[in-house]
């Protein structure tokens, strides 16, 4: 039994089911109390809890035991009535809203209990009142008493105690003592006491801070409660209340139990009485169905049994209480007084619990009471709630959390706010259950959150959803995750906390599995939130659109330059084999070991790629739109870092794999980028792209370094819908890059592929072959012209050229440009036209341009080429041009220009109608052409 | 009569590998996540129950309003509002056969998402037939 009293439910029962004392007082008494900042009930309440008294009590069967703890509850007469549902609802709402402000995570909602039908009366009159004796009588006048006492529901003959309050500030208590003597003669010796208050003259008495605080609902912290009460006053208060309980109330209850027990035994116990009772009850079967059953007055035997049971319960004689409740429940059941029946069942359940006897019986009683209350409809809802809460506590104290949770779910009824609290409690029960049922916990938090939101308790809704997020964080159940993040985000935005809102909304952007409507909704709300803030947000690793990192392609030009994009895509090995005998290897270009050849790169630059100032580095990145709705992104550009020397770049910025650090670098760069856009040492291109649903677009981006130094491509940034800036770092360690041009340095660590050594601006040749047809017929001969252009003032010289298919394409003589084509092919040109001006042919394929051929200053250099379609098929023509810098101080001595053309040669025969053309003519023609060709080459 | 039914297969660690709305009720926007919530929560119940019962077919072990969740082999779950227990059981058995066929596919990595469109079509056909 002692164990049960120590459980949370046991303590609660001992706290809540205690004798109620009705307080009647005159206004002057309130004035005295008001000086201390409290009203009368608040003043007395701290002294109504007795934790170490020792009162001997005897049971109805004369078994002695002792009560050590006791408590009284005080109420004003005006508060003694049936509790009002609306008021309670308002109170609940206020409590929850208040808790929302303070972010209290755990709420306990306990609707006020209906007052037990056990009342004692404390009548209080001030000594300042005129004719105090008459005042006492007036106060007890039945007209002013609560209606419950008058309409017969309660016994009006209740215990009365008379208290005379004297204010010591008004003088010595002599007059009061005289009144007390009068009172004693009128009302009896033991029933009267004198209470002297406010003995502390200066009003500075200091007390334990929280003596009254728990009883004062609207206490402000600065208020000094009880400042006029001296220690003596407090002792007197303790004394009076203790006497009231131990000398008056407990003996009174004890005596009443005996009387009632005898009465009940006489009328109801025993075989004969039971038969009689059954017979008598049966006769009442035809009474109309009524939820409350017949009206029971206080004098009816049923009420007497109930009072007996309640008294016994309060005095902790649970056996007696139980037997009476049991007796009563059958009566009520027969009478179909369902509310009373449920009430008795509820008390039975609690009594079983306190006895700790039969768990099954206790649960059965509670279940019974609960369902009976629910059957009554809306009138029983509040009682059902109370009953359910007792039940839950009972299950909780037995560690049956799973069952407790299901009871909480059953309590949750129509009222959304009420249900929200109950569902939240249910979720905590699931969490405490063994093993913890985390999924149920999450689910019920979500349900509760939805209801909170319905009642405009947004903060609570967010709190519950965030709790659920901890469960669902790593989940693969994508719809759940999206639902959570979307709603948390929306609610945070509602509260004006855009930063957090956006963080959550970002999580739902990549939702390709959702329907189109949902995607539109997500995107629209997200953009709306972002725009509402009016700021530009910077987001790392923005999920929209998705960067296809494997599509990353970087094209840059060091000593190798390309005439067209087509040339870029050709395998490096092919070019290299073509250039083999043209390019001087490093060792051979040095004349002797003393010749301090300007090194191509210093040692610590070795792992970088080399690029030339003023020449663009092209970076192609694929953007993929995962959604079905179209998305527009603007200002797509690269993020680059430039430093004058290699040492200036922090080594960790590039080598560190820590993502956070990389983010920091990005952030720094982006912020600095806005500041020095004009004076920047490099230029970035910006493109705008619009992605349709599911579309992937490769964005061509370029960065053009302007100054020598080291350039590092760090990431890419873009603007989504004009206000959200997304970044993506082109993290070297994480990403697999496909550098189009296999660089010589590839054997070094890959991390350097985005790092470029920028060298001084160099001349660069542009080359184009004019009039090259895409398709020709076999045997066709065309004169083409190669035009080379060098926009730089610095001349390039020592040009060499090599062509991959000399059979198809050959170099002509400079004067070929002027001859008339195809007239020159005619046979009668008697003189051999092999006039070679300064051209040498050292090898069959490398063509050396004349020594004096220099190109500079934008003057085009034109050289004729001859095309002869020798055989049908697809021909890839590769042409490389080698040239050296006129300026010997340049870091790079030479460069190559690579050109690539595709030629389709159609077979002649099927295309021509043989009958029309004399075969011999064709043969002649071909013979002539081949001799002509041989003479040219 | 329009019925609601949501079928799902979960792999280890509660990762959903297949899901299909197989009910005849018109699709609602919020239904999808609600169904996921209910099914997800029901995993708690089945986890408990799996140790105490030897039955493979656990019918309507969890309820939410008028929706019930049934399991077979603790991995195949169906959220339904129909009372047709026999139909559900047959449906489960047939789908289980299909699932085994998927597992027998050497190219299928167990525990990964089932993307076979044939499987999807067959499951939907079975749902029409039995539910």
Automatic annotation (TrEMBL), chain A:
InterPro entries the record matches: Ig_TPPC8_1st, Ig_TPPC8_2nd, TPR-like_helical_dom_sf, TRAPP_III_complex_Trs85
Domain called TPPC8 first Ig-like: residue spans: 572-741
Domain TPPC8 second Ig-like: 779-897
One GO cellular component term noted in the UniProt record for this chain: TRAPPIII protein complex
Pfam families: Ig_TPPC8_1st, Ig_TPPC8_2nd, TRAPPC-Trs85
PANTHER family the record matches: TRAFFICKING PROTEIN PARTICLE COMPLEX SUBUNIT 8, TRANSPORT PROTEIN TRAPP
Protein name as catalogued: Trafficking protein particle complex subunit 8
Organism: Escallonia herrerae
TrEMBL record, chain B:
One Pfam family in the UniProt entry: Sedlin_N
InterPro entries according to UniProt: Longin-like_dom_sf (IPR011012), Sedlin (IPR006722)
CDD domains the record matches: TRAPPC2_sedlin
Sequence intervals crossing the membrane: none
Family matches, as PANTHER family: TRAFFICKING PROTEIN PARTICLE COMPLEX SUBUNIT 2
GO cellular component: cytoplasm
Protein name per Swiss-Prot or TrEMBL: Trafficking protein particle complex subunit 2
An annotated GO BP: endoplasmic reticulum to Golgi vesicle-mediated transport
